[in-house]
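Table S2 (continued). Query chain:
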Amino acid sequence: MKDCPLDACKHRIALLVLTAALVLTASVAAKSDTGLTNHRTTHEIHSTATGNHDPIWIDGDADFAAQAASEGWKGNGSYDFPFAIENLSILSNAYCIWVTNVNAHFVIRNSVFSTDVSYEGRAITFSSTRNGVVDSCLLDSFYMGIDVHNSEDCELMNITVIEVQYGVYFAWSKHCTLMDSRLVHTGLIVEGDTIDEWNHTVVGNTVNGKAMGYFLSAHDLMVPGVDYGQIVLAGCSRVEIHGGELGDTTVGITMALCEDCSVYDSVLSFGVYGATIAKSQRTFLDGITANSNMIWGIMLNDSYSSVLAHCLFSGNGGWGIWCIGSDRSYIANSTIGENSDGLVCIDLQQALVIGNDIHGNGHGVDMQFCRDCILINNTICQNTVTGLELEYECTGNLVCANTIGWNNECNAQDDGINNLWDDGNALGNSWSDYSGGGDYQIPGSAGSIDHFPSKATSTSSTITTDGGSPWNWNQMTQIVTAAAVITIVVFSILIIRNRGTGTADRDHISNSLCTNFRKCVCSSF
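Corresponding output:
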């Protein structure tokens, strides 16, 4: 690991503390749902669809016009007289209608699309297309219902989507509409890098009988989660979601391009994803439960200074927590258990993982390309593969005061560079396989050593997920401040070890730093 000057470290941490304390002000402007209106019944749609039609592939305006002439579709592609594909029934395990590179106006309506293999194929795809409309259609049992990607000004209305893994997907598209539609055992997923790619009109829809909440550029708002089947926040600040069971949908809660937004005590279960937080700042999640989702409990993607506290992530098919590129995030006092993998961290800097119970997963904690992160006071036990693994250029991380044991293949492995497994003074980790009488050698190419190990004798944990009242932003600021102090301690220990300080001075400074380290841990958490 490269030497990091202490003054520069302090400067960066000071910026972190100031950033976490920043409070922004703006006006209120929300787009949300009031309920379902003017929705055609499934029976009405079935009654107008006739026969079985082969799948339709359209590439470009000229191709659309040629197929319209051949098929006898009405319209000429103008705004006033769009091409009309209507009253069809298409059964396909690949795709039903695929439209690409089209600018002409067209509508797909009064049709039924289905597959005889659950969660296979796509019903309708618009790719690099404008001015498409889907009206009064039924889509059943696909992998993806309606995929609108790299497209603009497309409208979906009065549709019914049932048992589809990804019900409606707006991907890097602009100014699209989803309205007056019913989504059952599915939901909406949106992806985009700019607020313009989230600037959609989403009103009048339901998810599993409850309103779909789509909040665009909302500020200073409290959202009762119990009123919604799915919630999306885009470009919001200081919005709080309280409670609710937002499950059995594509993704229970989505935040993108948000600042200072919070979720308290929500249950996100039996969906594809529990929650997705992307390109957001200072997100705070307290007391949430994300269990039995198909892929992850929660993903933090490029969202710095996020806090997860007092949460439960269990039984998720992929990862309990998937954290990528979200520097200075904090995962505290949570249970991460019985997931395919527990906590996966990729490309993080200065993250803090403290006081968690991580058990019964495949990999307990898997870190890749992570720098200057801290893992302290966690119980990492009885995972079926590795308890804790630092790999792929993990550098300068501190692993201290954890209980690590009874993991099936390996308690820990370090293939990184200059990671620390003790505080440099007297505090290491407790290991189930420590035989006593000396150092504990960490397996892996790094050749790391815990110089102050102890014998772990129990897997019991004091972690709880329902203790006390939710944290507030003042407490979050305290967390950030404590983490800043701890990070300075870590950098200082590294500098002391790697530079030629005299023995007496080195011991004195190290003792002082480690005393402050323990005080910080005990008083702040």
